[in-house]
Amino acid sequence: xxxxxxxxxxxxxxxxxxxxxxxxxxxxxxxxxxxxxxxxxxxxxxxxxxxxxxxxxxxxxxxxxxxxxxxxxxxxxxxxxxxxxxxxxxxxxxxxxxxxx
Length: 101
Prior knowledge:
Blueprint: H1 2-21, H2 34-38, H3 45-60, H4 67-83, H5 89-97
């Protein structure tokens, strides 16, 4: 009987771990710093760059994404963030991608 209890408790523990591992995590992108972005501390920087590209395109009212432009802008953002690690990544995007006034 004790072997059965051990197996059941292991299964319950494994199921609880699996459920926790599949939990969604939400991020406030406005709080991500350049250091976190370039240091892979949140997720792969390409994932964040893609999201930021879509966000910035929407702010401009554009639904078009140029893939070469996306790659070039991601590289610019990475380079800028390496030089400015404490700046919020969204501020870096605004600095790099907003049209000159």
